[in-house]
Amino acid sequence: MDGAVKYQAKKKPLLPRIKKYAGFYLMFIPVLAFLIVFHYMPMFGIYFSFTKYTIIKDPIWVGLANFERLFSMPNFWTAFANTIELSVVKLLLTTGFSVVLSLLLNEMVNVNGKKLAQTIVYLPHFMSWVVTASVFQLILSPTTAGLVNSVLLNLGVIDEGIYFLGSSKTWAGAYYMINIWHDTGWGTIIFMATLTGIDPGIYEAAAIDGAGRWKKMWYITMPALANTIITVLILNLAKIMNLFESVFVLQNDAVMDVSQVLQTYVYYQTFNSGGIPDYGYTTAIGLFRSLVGMGLMLVCNYASKKVRGRGIV
Predict the structure, then answer these.
(1) Where are the domains of the chain?
(2) pLDDT tens digits for range 91-113
(3) Architecture of domain 75-308 in this structure
């Protein structure tokens, strides 16, 4: 109690403290302005999701009509299901491959070789999705100019070229493969950081007890990585509704049934609808997506508290 009284006595008034740290407050102003303009002010646009709003007319209040229209559209539910499927499978695959790759890199003894390998696997992440899509459209081209089809034809595996990015049967597999190539290397950074934090003495003690490389990995490395793996999965699960760029640059009219996601659905409804877009309807889609994302965030926060003992927000 005495300590609390002394602390209150020593606490300076607000104005002198602001003057003392004026530089920090000035540096915070641009960040605050950014948050207000791009994160808080757009929230007032929720109003338009309950209106019929075209650019040539003022908004007309329609209540829940946009949501009734939304939930009655089969294309919307297809896009919603595709969003969940593509995001979750991509998350599991990239996380799994990141763990395997980080374990392989961690086993490399030569330091220079290890640094070179890390640099090579990190590089794809810095390629824009537009460039990545262009490269893989060439590699997966259905003609003999396509590397994959050329190899398969020469080996006699197939009789004619396969249009991997133009068939509903093969598009998803190609999409996952491209995402693994693009994101796996970057994802290893977190796991490599965890691996470098493991006490080498534990491995030495295990070696004295006769443990081989496989047992060290299974009984020491994997338990140390387990909490990080769960944390990465939880944090990324909350962002699965934000899928857009990687899908948009790889989709085409022939595969819309498997590649259409909520973000691309909103894009086409707004800019490719063949008439004057109804911004009230597309705002309703965005609000629904945000509510689902918020629900996932709450679920992930609860899961994080159970696993890590603290939430993510």
Answers:
(1) 2-52, 75-308
(2) 999 999 999 998 888 888 788 88
(3) Orthogonal Bundle (1.10)
